[in-house]
């Protein structure tokens, strides 16, 4: 069980930046930082993340005793926990998209940002940032986004944060296999057509599962490719 220490702020530049600074200063596991508004939120692959008031901006600090190579599983786990938190309040089912998106009605509802530092071969600390569109959805070129409010649903940021923290406590100590199985149960089915864009190339194929390290497996041209980073678009192959 994790003993959470939730700090709330009216406004921050970035919950993950503050949580990371505290991690580097030696803060114990269990710190959680919630901001009702972010002015310099960060998304994946260096993007900015719009975080107007009313949405969820939450970052947590963990110090798991795991090999650093398995840090990516926490991105998958965060998606599971976020989906479970939403569904504890509302019936509409969510879907997960590798590696860090929670979808509602096929559009992005929430995303995850991971910051981590190794200590030898293991992790020293891990900061998980979760942004969720509760009241409004930012515009992302080429991507469909949505909010709970767009579906007629109302959820306060504090209630969402507490549900997420409870979820991480329930999953505390879960291994990669359990996380992988739970993620696959909520994800796009095997065989789903995918297009994956990285900084250097675009690959197309079909979803073939997850590697033992949590990488996406893409079947393309009679080969299985392990994908460790990239933007995944569904149904475009």
TrEMBL record:
A GO molecular-function descriptor: ligase activity
Gene3D superfamilies attached to this UniProt entry: Bira Bifunctional Protein, Domain 2
Membrane-spanning segments: none
Pfam family, one: BPL_C
Annotated BPL/LPL catalytic domain residues: 1-176
Substrates-to-products reaction catalysed: biotin + L-lysyl-[protein] + ATP = N(6)-biotinyl-L-lysyl-[protein] + AMP + diphosphate + H(+)
PROSITE patterns, per database record: BPL_LPL_CATALYTIC
Keywords: Biotin, Ligase
Origin superkingdom: Bacteria
Keyword Ligase on entry: yes
InterPro entries given in the database record: aa-tRNA-synth_II/BPL/LPL, Biotin_CoA_COase_ligase, BPL_C, BPL_LPL_catalytic
EC number: 6.3.4.15
Name of the protein in question: biotin--[biotin carboxyl-carrier protein] ligase
Species this protein is from: Acidocella aquatica
Phylogenetic lineage: Bacteria, Pseudomonadati, Pseudomonadota, Alphaproteobacteria, Acetobacterales
